[in-house]
Specification:
Layout (H helix, E strand, L loop, with lengths): L4 H10 L2 E10 L5 E12 L3 E3 L1 H11 L2 H17 L6 E5 L2 H5 L3 H12 L6 E6 L7 H13 L3 E7 L6 H6 L4 E4 L1 H6 L4 H17 L2 E4 L5 H10 L3 E2 L8 E2 L3 H7 L27 H12 L3 E6 L4 E4 L1 H7 L3 H4 L4 H4 L4 H12 L4 E8 L8 E11 L5 E10 L1 H21 L5 E5 L5 E4 L2 H6 L17 H17 L3 E8 L6 E12 L5 E10 L2
Parallel strand pairs: 2-4, 4-5, 5-6, 6-7, 7-8, 8-9
Antiparallel strand pairs: 1-2, 1-9, 1-10, 2-3, 11-12, 11-15, 13-14, 14-15, 16-17, 16-20, 18-19, 19-20
Helix pairs in contact: 3-5
């Protein structure tokens, strides 16, 4: 569509060029990071004219600077009154980058509107760098000296060159919407996005995904470690007057939106690794490990973990990602922090045994902690690998073994008689194998109240009455009863003596005793 100069002049006179603002969101937290400034033209006869139709005319016919000035003045004034952590991303034309007045013009408008250039991100397309890279570097350096950040827009779609990343001091790379939009269906698009994100991570640059429209795309980008995103999934572009209400609606907290995808993977945040087969194998190890595993960054935030560790902490996996150890296990953090700090200093910390106090939802636990420094290709520590083993079952088994040894010790004290153990109600818990010989019983017939079957019928009730008196009073057991010999109708007299074992609360835990053969 041809653009007539008289239409342009009328548009400037009537204020028909409008700034619109596309939300920029932190993929790790869901919080609002800022807005990208977009140009819109509302023609009185033709309606809304898309920027792809009028921006080329503005560059060709020489009114791009005037358009930029008008849009920046309105945008800077609008953003000035929003919270200071909310940034503004703006695109500059290759034509403007070829001149020398761009930094001064931006600084003047910012000063007039009271907007801080520290909140400004200047987006440059790679096509703008092809004509005169040295001049582009000079302009970029001046913009950086003003506090502006620099973003490389539409990376990978045109004149992509790693030289641009070496020459210009970029702060972020934008992944083009053409790759993001097709990454769910096309493996090559996923690989390209992964490569761009990995490149950004390796160079310490923030990666921003454009054109995000679905939850599936969000989950993939989270998994790949992309930091920021924009697109219809987070909201359409808004006019200036709608920004205050939009900021109030959008989340600006550290509430994590990390999610588990269809194959059970939790997003990894901005953990500085390349998304490769090696990482897929690592995730498989994490998921299958019988111990709790996690990776902590240098800020002690969980960047990766498995389900076992989440279960140990009593919180879902997605609640951990992006949160600090102090936030997730506050009661234990003072104990483990010194070990984590030592690991961050490069010292491996193996096998630290820690008692985890009981909570409303779980019993106390004994855990074994190991912290291993994680190093990058240069040997620098980038975080800590954590392994946690729950020793509680082992500790319970050890406690049971000690209890059995205690039982045995009490029994041994009364040898050479026949030792026995009964519970507070008279059920037999343990007895010497000699009882089987004396009473003519087999196997486990003696267990529970089965031992009473060996008594003479006339002694059964008196024996039980005497034992109940001891159960009630706690006085020692001392009685005589007859048991059947192996030979038919032959009985032998036994003397049974025993004493109660009391717990810390004074209640009877069990009775220990022995039988003496009276013939």
């Amino acid at each position: 569509m041809s653009i007539e100069q008289q239409d342009v002049d009328r548009a400037f006179a009537n204020g028909d060029f409008h700034p619109y603002f596309q939300p920029l969101v932190d993929l790790r937290t869901g919080g609002l990071q800022g807005f990208e400034l977009l140009a819109r033209w509302k023609h009185p006869d033709r309606g809304w004219i898309p920027p792809m139709e009028f921006i080329p005319s503005a560059e060709k016919d020489g009114w791009i600077d005037r358009l930029t000035r008008d849009l920046f003045e309105t945008a800077f004034s609008t953003m000035r009154d929003l919270p200071s952590h909310i940034a503004l991303s703006v695109n500059v034309s290759p034509v403007q980058l070829r001149g020398s007045g761009l930094p001064a013009n931006i600084q003047r408008i910012a000063a007039e509107t009271g907007f801080s250039t520290n909140r400004l991100i200047i987006e440059i397309t790679e096509s703008a760098l092809t004509d005169d890279l040295d001049h582009a570097r000079t302009i970029s350096t001046r913009l950086k000296s003003m506090g502006c950040k620099l973003g490389l827009d539409d990376f990978g779609t045109g004149y992509s060159s790693l030289t641009h990343l070496q020459t210009i001091p970029f702060d972020e790379i934008k992944v083009d919407r053409s790759f993001v939009g097709s990454m769910a269906e096309r493996r090559d698009s996923r690989k390209i996005v992964a490569a761009v994100v990995g490149l950004g991570q390796s160079l310490g640059l923030t990666t921003v995904a454009e054109g995000v429209e679905t939850l599936e795309q969000v989950q993939m980008l989270q998994w790949l470690g992309c930091e920021s995103a924009q697109g219809w999934f987070y909201g359409k572009a808004l006019p200036a007057e709608a920004l205050p209400d939009a900021v109030a609606r959008l989340r600006q907290t550290d509430t994590p939106v990390a999610s588990i995808d269809a194959v059970g993977r939790v997003s990894r945040g901005s953990f500085d690794v390349l998304p490769s087969v090696r990482l897929a194998q690592l995730q498989a190890v994490y998921d299958g490990a019988p111990v709790g595993l996690a990776f902590l960054d240098r800020d002690l935030r969980y960047r990766m973990l498995n389900r076992k560790l989440a279960q140990m902490n009593g919180r879902p996996m997605e609640d951990h990602v992006g949160k600090t150890v102090a936030q997730m296990i506050p009661e234990l953090f003072p104990v483990v922090e010194p070990y984590i700090r030592r690991a961050l200093d490069g010292e491996p910390i193996p096998g630290v045994e820690v008692k985890k106090p009981a909570s409303e939802t779980r019993d106390s636990q004994t855990i074994l902690l190991s912290y291993e420094p994680a190093r990058d290709e240069a040997g620098e520590v980038v975080g800590v690998s954590v392994a946690i083993m729950d020793l509680s079952p082992i500790k319970r088994a050890e406690e049971a073994q000690r209890e059995a040894q205690e039982h045995f010790r009490h029994m041994i004290e009364l040898l050479p008689q026949i030792p026995w153990i009964i519970d507070p109600e008279g059920r037999a818990l343990d007895v010497s194998q000699r009882w089987l010989e004396v009473a003519g019983m087999k196997g486990d017939q003696w267990r529970g109240f089965g031992w009473l079957d060996a008594l003479h019928p006339d002694d059964l009730q008196p024996t039980w009455d005497a034992m109940n008196r001891s159960f009630e009073s706690g006085n020692p057991i001392d009685l005589v009863y007859r048991v059947r010999r192996s030979a038919a109708n032959a009985w032998r007299r036994l003397r049974s003596r025993g004493a109660a074992r009391l717990g810390a609360d004074g209640d009877i835990i069990c009775w220990y005793g022995c039988l003496e053969d009276l013939g």
